[in-house]
Amino acid sequence: MRLPFTLLIDPVPADSLQHDFADTFHEMDSSAPALRVGELSTQRGDGIFETLAVVNGHPQEVEPHISRLRNSARICELPVPNAEQWRAAIAYAVSRIPQRGEIALKFVLSRGVEHGPAPTAWLHAAAAADFSAVRADGVRVITLDRGYPRGVAEKAPWLLMGAKTLSYAVNMAAIREAHRRGADDTIFLTTDGFVMEGPTSSVVLRIAGEYVTPAPSGAILHGTTQQSMFDYLRAQGASVDYRDVTVDELRRADAVWLVSSVRLAVSVVALDGSDFPADQALTDALNTYLLARTA
Amino acid sequence: MRLPFTLLIDPVPADSLQHDFADTFHEMDSSAPALRVGELSTQRGDGIFETLAVVNGHPQEVEPHISRLRNSARICELPVPNAEQWRAAIAYAVSRIPQRGEIALKFVLSRGVEHGPAPTAWLHAAAAADFSAVRADGVRVITLDRGYPRGVAEKAPWLLMGAKTLSYAVNMAAIREAHRRGADDTIFLTTDGFVMEGPTSSVVLRIAGEYVTPAPSGAILHGTTQQSMFDYLRAQGASVDYRDVTVDELRRADAVWLVSSVRLAVSVVALDGSDFPADQALTDALNTYLLARTA
Fold it and tell me: Name one Pfam family in it (chains A, B) (predicted).
């Protein structure tokens, strides 16, 4: 029942008939070395990952995360993960970590050791950072050019947009750039002025009363928490839509949220240095809903 | 005197007055785990690297590689590496590996363990692949859109172009795309049709008798072996130039080479499925020169 918690996983093929995976998991001391320097995850950022929240012992959005991991694997030509094995690994991890509080559970599939026989995989759980302040007060956001024109992902699938790869150096640099400009986070734009996503979040806007997120495409990850937010909004009778969103629409939106699995929903309260309207009551209601889910 | 060889390094600050670094190196079994799963190199591809060749006991282009590592660190806001320590680490490694044959020596600086106190660093030496066939016969190359317009790196430094980061998933995907199309390697183009570089190499063209490479810029790594090639060509009395090169110039070039530290110079013998003229005599002379360097 300690954190951090680390589980090494021997991946089995997607079509394996195996149903008991216990002997494919190896719990280990998180402070001990686990990976060889020849790992392509570390040499080349060549692997994929997901991070889900475990709230009071309940792992959230397990199926959407596993589904997205499998989709990332297809884009990256990695062996498609066995969903049943990952479900079992997550369940095992959840049984071994504290049953109270918020925990970030990351799971990784790497191409493995260079010239090695097989991919490697692991799962790592750590106490989530305390996001109570940003959930209550919102985040100051800057827009940054992601460098790509809209539609590039469809024309150039080797850019791996739409896959959640370990090659996140640009995402991390974008957050440092936000800090340098006195902000907290970033919204990426295409070079031709369309809203994409945050480095580690989805963007949801309220425009003329309707909730909108940029259409998931080759270039934009389909946010698992954004989908939960839309479920909540639909249940409230609100109108939701996936469509292209221009930077002008972003600047004129009624309200904007960054949404992600562990930080959950945060209001954008400043955009490129100017105050921005927020609907904090909805943010609060949404996070109450997201934290209370038990599946 | 065995390969692979792994050396863990405790990085000292660039301005350290230390001159004896022996106690900052820790040789270890390459098959043993060395890195924690919390490593940002593996979680986020958040680190930088260089790979140099050791030929018959001589490490090649040590200073250009260390210099480029330091430049990558500045772009990525990592602590700037202590050049003297890296020189000492490379020299130590070279003293511990076979003195015959070609060896690839990779050195890495990672942002370290998440929320950890310091970056981590290591060096890894392994026998080079046997490149005699591609050096003699050349490579079939396809052009691929890198998705970025020319000049984006200057406008968007958070894209980390010009830094040699561990986030290489796209580079690896581009090589897989080449293989899928029956080719060996890739030349990246900007969306507006300028030649950039290969996923793991520089591009050198001969155009109307002059040797040209795309100007190193925010978007293009300054190739260490390309610089050695230009040294050789200048010594032969040839004219060399750094400038913008369009894809039309690429298609009409007299000859094209991909140049990198370990594979060295290889002739492009096919471009996008069509045969391409090669100057194999120059390739051979160049590789003889590159392999014979003793500094």
Answer: Aminotran_4
Strand bridging mode A5-9 / A120-127: antiparallel
Tell me which chain B residues have a C-beta less than 8 angstroms from the C-beta of A191: 149, 152
Residues 6+ apart with CB under 8 A from A222: A68, A216
**What's the DSSP call for residue B57?**
T
Report the C-alpha gap between A120 and A114 in whole angstroms. Answer: 11
- CA gap B69, B105 in Å, rounded: 14
Nearest to A187 by CA among A208, A209, A203: A203
Q: Which domains does chain A have, with CATH numbers?
A: 5-127 (3.30.470.10), 132-292 (3.20.10.10)
Q: Which residue of B has its CA nearest to A39?
A: B42
Rg (CA), chain B: 19
Nearest CA to B227 out of B235, B146, B284 is that of B235
Tell which of A109, A167, A180 to mutate to test the B interface (max B CBs under 10 Å): A167
A64, pLDDT greater than 70: yes
- Pairs across A and B, CB distance < 8 A: 180
CA B283/CA B46 separation, integer angstroms: 35
Length of chain A, please? Answer: 295
Say if the Cβ atoms of B170 and A171 lie within 8 Å. no
Q: Which two tokens stand for residue B273?
A: 């499925």
Strand A139-145 with A264-271, pairing = parallel
> What CA–CA distances, in Å, run from B78 to B19, B154, B184?
22, 19, 34
Looking at CA atoms only, how far is residue B266 from chain A in angstroms? 23
Look at residues B227, B219, B243, B223 and name the one whose alpha carbon lies nearest to residue B75: B219
- Cα of B209 to nearest chain A Cα, Å: 33
Residues B59-72: tens digit of each pLDDT:
999 999 999 999 99
What six digits make up the tokens of B52? 């140099």
Q: Are strands A185-189 and A139-145 parallel, antiparallel or unpaired?
A: parallel
The amino acid present at A134, given as its one-letter code, is V
Average pLDDT for B189-193: 95
How confident is the model over A186-196, as pLDDT tens digits? 999 999 999 99
Mutate to test the interface with B, among A41, A42, A50, A146 (most CBs of B within 10 A): A42
Q: Is the separation of the CB atoms in A169 and B73 below 8 Å?
A: no
A154: left (phi over 0), alpha (psi -120 to 50) or beta: alpha
Q: Which amino acid is it at A147?
A: G
**At residue A92, does pLDDT exceed 70?**
yes
Instruction: List, for residues A248-292, the tens digit of each pLDDT value.
Output: 999 999 999 999 999 999 999 999 999 999 999 999 999 999 999
Q: What does the DSSP 8-state code read for residue A98?
A: -
Q: Which of A44, A163, A177 sits opposite B166 (nearest CB)?
A: A44
Distance CA B122, CA B81 (A): 12
Find chain A residues with C-beta within 8 A of B148's C-beta: 147-148
Q: How confident is the model at residue B116 (pLDDT cuts 50, 70, 90)?
A: confident
